[in-house]
Design goal:
This protein is 52% helix and 4% strand. It has a three-stranded antiparallel sheet.
Length: 282
C-alpha cells in the first residue's frame, strides 16, 4: 500500500492501543472481543470524527486483525461481524473550463516559481493526477515526444497516462529555462517539480499555490489539488469519453469510483429531461 495508507493504519492501531490501555489495561491481544471494539467505535464517534474518518479507522483496525490472524497471534478475528458506518456519497467540487483558464492566467510568470506552478497545474489538469503523483513525478518517466507520462499511483502501481500539448509545452519551458538554473539537492536529481531549496515539493505547497490563485481571482469555491483531478474527469465525461478509459487514466481500481463523474454532467441530465419528460418543458 502507499506510504500515506500505511501511516494512517499505524495511527488507527495506535488509537485502539490507547483506548485498550485506558479501559482494559493488561488485556492480551487474543482476548480482545467484538464488544471491546464496539466500545472503541463509540469512543471515536465521541471524538466527532467524520463518517469517512471513522470508516477509515475501522478499515485500519480490520486489516490489523486480519494480519494477526494470518500470523497466528489470534485464533479468531473479532472484527468479522463489525459494522462500518454508512457513508454518504457527496459530489466533488468541480471547476468550469472558464474558471480553470482564469486560475491559470492568474499565475505570475515574472517569478521563477511562476513557470513551475503553471507547468505543475497544467500537468495535474491534463493528466488527472493525484497530488502525491504530481510531487513524485520523475523526469525519467516523462515521454513527452510521444505524449505520455509514467505515473506511480497508489500502492506503487504504475500506469501510462496521455499528456496534452499545453502541459508538454509548459513542462519544457520550466525544465529547460527554470529548473536547469536551480541547485538540486542530492536525491532529488530526477524529481521534476522542485521547491526553492532544490527538493521535492510537498503536497501542502501545491495546496497553498492553488489557494493563493483562487484568492487572487476571487473564486468562492473551496478548492484543493484534487479539484483539478475531479475537473479533468468531469470534463472528459461531459464530452462523451468512455468511462473505462477515464477509469484507466485516473488509476481507479474499481469503475464504481469513476461512476461518480457521470452524476456531475448536469447539462446532459437537463437535456435528457427536456427531451423525454412529458411535462418538463411546460
Amino acid at each position: 500500500m502507499s506510504d500515506n495508507t500505511v501511516d494512517a493504519y499505524i495511527h488507527d492501531t495506535e488509537l485502539l492501543g490507547v483506548f485498550m490501555q485506558e479501559q482494559y489495561a493488561g488485556i492480551k491481544m487474543q482476548d480482545i472481543e467484538r464488544k471491546h471494539l464496539q466500545e472503541f467505535i463509540v469512543r471515536i464517534n465521541e471524538f466527532e470524527f467524520t463518517e469517512g474518518t471513522q470508516a477509515r479507522v475501522l478499515s485500519g483496525i480490520k486489516s490489523f486483525f486480519k494480519y494477526l490472524l494470518l500470523e497466528e497471534v489470534i485464533k479468531k478475528n473479532p472484527t468479522e461481524l463489525l459494522d462500518s458506518p454508512k457513508l454518504k456519497r457527496t459530489l466533488p467540487t468541480v471547476l468550469s473550463i472558464e474558471e480553470i483558464e482564469e486560475l491559470f492566467s492568474a499565475i505570475d510568470h515574472s517569478k521563477p516559481e511562476g513557470q513551475r506552478n503553471r507547468a505543475m497545474l497544467e500537468t495535474m489538469y491534463s493528466c488527472g493526477l493525484r497530488v502525491s503523483e504530481l510531487t513524485a513525478l520523475k523526469i525519467s518517466n516523462l515521454h513527452l515526444e510521444v505524449g505520455f507520462v509514467r505515473v506511480i499511483g497508489k500502492g506503487n502501481k504504475e500506469r501510462l497516462t496521455p499528456i496534452g500539448g499545453e502541459a508538454v509545452k509548459q513542462i519544457k519551458l520550466y525544465k529547460d529555462h527554470v529548473r536547469v538554473h536551480m541547485p538540486v539537492k542530492a536525491g532529488s536529481e530526477d524529481i521534476l517539480f522542485l521547491n526553492k531549496r532544490g527538493s521535492q515539493l510537498s503536497r501542502v505547497m501545491v495546496f497553498l499555490v492553488l489557494k493563493e490563485l483562487a484568492k487572487k481571482i476571487g473564486l468562492k469555491k473551496n478548492i484543493h489539488p484534487h479539484t483539478l483531478r475531479h475537473s479533468f474527469a468531469t470534463h472528459l465525461v461531459e464530452r462523451g469519453a468512455d468511462l473505462r478509459a477515464v477509469q484507466e487514466m485516473l488509476g481507479h481500481k474499481s469503475i464504481t469510483t469513476t461512476e461518480i463523474y457521470t452524476h456531475l454532467d448536469r447539462g446532459y441530465l437537463r437535456q435528457t429531461l427536456e427531451k423525454y419528460h412529458p411535462r418538463f418543458g411546460k
